[in-house]
Design goal:
Radius of gyration: 17 Å
Number of strands: 10
Helix content: 25-40%
Strand order of the largest sheet: 1-4-5-8-9-10
Oligomer: single chain
Amino acid sequence: ALDGNCGRLRELYLGECNSISADAFAEFFARQRRKRGARKVLQGHGGKEQEVEVDEEECQRISSSGITNGLVRVGLDRCYMLTDRVLQELVMYSGASLTWLGLNSVDDNLTLNGLLALAGKMDDRGDHDQAGLREGENEAGGGGLAVAKETGGCVNLEELDVSFVRCASDSVLSVVLAKCKRLAQISVYGCPEVTSLAPARSGLAYVGRECDTL
């Protein structure tokens, strides 16, 4: 029912919905993206409106540019089965529109590849460890990990909760923050790899960082 009647859906809260499989989550976001790609949209040309077909490649470009609306607030706290693919599909569908994302305790199957999707980095070639991430950053002159493909990422993201997501680290957040320049608050309770060396900038607050309470 949700899949067939959510063209205008802007907020999605499915905390603790562990009866929904990771594949079902990922396919839901993928289907919404494909529907948008197949849909006729109106574009202005010289003050006139004209219907044009949008293919999959153009759909991703539109989504990355922020022209097409998607989900704005998504809460997936304690959805323990979520995988990297779910986050990748979510970002490809709603990366440009997303302002708030809750991933509290989504830790069982999520790797740093899932979090890197927030920065538009879609790696489908296998998991990287933290050392590999740092190595990739160094080889790229600080530009980040070499990946299979890239999208626009979550450029409008303002609040992120990755509490108790153990793959969250200083290195991962450095890549995410380089793309998500509007991020103002990151909740990191239970993330021991997020330390006092995590990237800092004006207007950015870490909530629940362990080193701040010592």
